[in-house]
Amino acid sequence: MSCEDRRALVGEGHLEDSPEEICRKESIDMSEGVKDTPTVRGTGTSCAGPCLGLYGRLKLLTIALLSGTILILVFLLATINRSPGCGNHSDSPITAPNPLGGAGRGVCARVKDDSRFDCLPEAEATEEGCRVRGCCWEDRDGVYEPRRSVPKCYYPPRYPGYRMGPVSTTSAGMGVELTRQSNSHYPSDVKHLQVDLKYETDTRLHIKIYDANKRRYEIPRDLVETPEVISSSKDQQYSIKLYNNPFSMQILRKEDGQILMDTSVGAFIYSDQLIQLSTLLPSVYLYGLGEYEGPLLHNLTQWDVLTMWAIDKPVKPNANLYGSYPFYISMESSGKSHGVYLHNSNAMDVLLQPTPALTWRTTGGILDLYVFLGPTPGDVVKQYTDVIGRPILPPYWSLGFHLCRWGYNSANRTREILHRMRSHDIPMDVQWNDIDYMADFKDFTFDPDAFDTLMELVDDIHSMGQKYVMMTDPPISSTEPAGSYAPYERGLELDVFVKQSDGADFVGIGWPGPAVFPDFTNPTSQQYWSEMMVNFHNKVPFDGMWLDMSEPTSIDWAVSDPNSIKKCPPDNSLESPPYVPNIVDLTLSNKTICTSSQQYAGSHYNVHNLYGHSELMRTYYALTEAIPNKRPFIIARSTFSGSNKFSGHWLGDNRSEWPFLKRSIAGR
């Protein structure tokens, strides 16, 4: 932050300190031999380059104006002893707080309770563990719940992180190089980062932070297609401030100077399996970040942790559920709104606190952030769907009255209820069947005994202008006699099933028993899934598809159970990462396929949250073949940002009780 911004922060009560103690001298140094690129250097004991005098400042301003950018470069150079002029510049990093003694008491005392950012979130905090990380420790009497209380172990101000290197102009905005100054407390730090700031539209800023030397997993564009922008917009409604050491950034609304994002708090960590970025929020009015059960408006005073890791569990508060939507809308004090979307599919926690502030903590991928300027909530949603895609236009009949439940048990019983609805003149447009229609719960089959009259039932439904929707699940039975079950054998021929880490087909447990799982990130899976849908529709002329268990669910719970058919290698870092988000049961592979399994788009560790999305996308295109010239109707349980292009979403397993009906209105 600038001295003025830091004084404002002190005035707002976020830091108990004086402006004189917080402010540091600001300076920019032009590297020898580099004419148009400002290079930032730290402050030490020797001058590493010429002073940036009036001429240099005018030259830098001219470069910025000619490049058409709106980037404001503000370099905070931290010193222990202030020195006048440019006499104390070097590249030596700021040293971390004493790793054995922790941060100094005076530094820690300045941080108020609501501005503490958790330094030891992955376990029950101990003073020894906290001091090793160079963080502040205060243990008070009272109840402490990890990740949901005022942290005992918290970062001191200006915790060491990355330092800025050269800044360059690109056709779409700016590029910045970052270098890690000391190791974080997580293994395999990414030492060199590239920050791309793209001014994609006047109201959309794209911030992409990635490994400068090695390609990391990113969400494949063929699964969630985002815009490719190669040139900068001309009249941005935002401005950017960058700070040097430790690196942080501010995003501001030009019109009123409102700070929308300020990452100078907490600690910026970018390691192989843990990426963390904190930001101050302009107000306590925050919405989004599903899927969870709760009100639309978050209560930041509760230190909530919102976890995104798709899982098959009955709906309950404070638990990760079926879908992942790393997107929020913030209402500012002026009444304007802005939004932020993190384009990342890895397991993640989003920590909220009363500062007000938010911390992204994801277990992999990259930081791929979009900031939307609004200024109305409707504008923010439009700008968000400019990136992830507009919602599907559903068929007209799908907007009518639907009847569905588990346990009809037979075609005749389903038909009986259908006729009772008609006899009482109760409006009804669509009849559904759960998996009880299947033969032994196998996809693309129907029970030859209990549902032997299924075709007559569907004809009856269609004769009255009504529609029929059926359920399917991802697991494909793998133990049927040879030649008896085409979905399994055709999948083997096309080699479309998810693999174990050793390359064999992964086998888990689904409703039919031992089962394999189609890899819907594999392009060949489209041929496979379309064939299955077309062939089954030729037998049962359904009108829409209901996708369940698409997290995906493997019913065997305990990965450590020696009797479990699922064998997940316990010593694999993809099964036991250094940080596990606050998921149900705190084990990534519980009730799903092993995270060390491999898919076409990468490890299941990276693409788990995209499994349901990839299935519904393949189902959408399969239905265009099975039911040509009709808009597909799909309802899916596990969804991701961008699923709206192909499908609707249902809220999973709840109960037929009034409180659940009320909670469903928010639909989080």
- From the spread of the alpha carbons, the general shape counts as globular
| Fraction of residues in H or I helices | 10-25%
Number of helices: 13
Assembly context of the chains: single chain
Strands ordered across the widest β-sheet: 6-7-8-9-21-18-17-15
Give the N-to-C terminal Cα separation: 35 Å
How much β-strand is present in the residues? 15-25%
Annotation, overall tally of beta strands = 32
The overall pLDDT, averaged over residues, is 85
**What would you report as the Rg, rounded to the nearest angstrom?**
28 Å
Sheet with most strands: 8 strands, antiparallel
Any chance you could write out the topology, listing elements then pairs?
Blueprint: H1 3-11, H2 19-22, E1 42-43, H3 54-67, E2 71-73, E3 89-90, H4 105-109, H5 127-132, E4 136-137, E5 153-154, E6 162-169, E7 173-180, E8 192-201, E9 204-211, E10 238-243, E11 248-253, E12 259-262, E13 269-270, E14 275-280, E15 285-290, E16 305-308, E17 325-331, E18 337-342, E19 348-353, E20 357-362, E21 367-372, H6 377-388, E22 402-403, H7 411-423, E23 430-433, H8 454-463, E24 467-472, E25 476-477, H9 486-494, E26 508-510, E27 513-516, H10 524-539, E28 544-547, E29 598-599, E30 602-603, H11 604-607, H12 611-626, E31 634-636, E32 648-649, H13 658-666
Parallel strand pairs: 2-10, 22-23, 23-24, 24-28, 28-31, 31-32
Antiparallel strand pairs: 1-3, 4-5, 6-7, 7-8, 8-9, 9-21, 10-11, 11-12, 13-14, 14-20, 15-17, 16-19, 17-18, 18-21, 19-20, 25-27, 26-27, 29-30
Explain what this protein looks like in three dimensions.
There is one protein chain. With 668 residues, the chain is α+β, with helices and mostly antiparallel strands. Helices cover 19% and strands 22% of the residues. The chain has 13 helices and 32 strands. The strands form eight sheets. An eight-stranded antiparallel β-sheet has the order 6-7-8-9-21-18-17-15. Strands 22-23-24-28-31-32 form a six-stranded parallel β-sheet. A hairpin with a 3-residue loop joins strand 19 (348-353) and strand 20 (357-362). The protein is globular and about 80 Å long. The model is unreliable at 1-101 (pLDDT under 50).
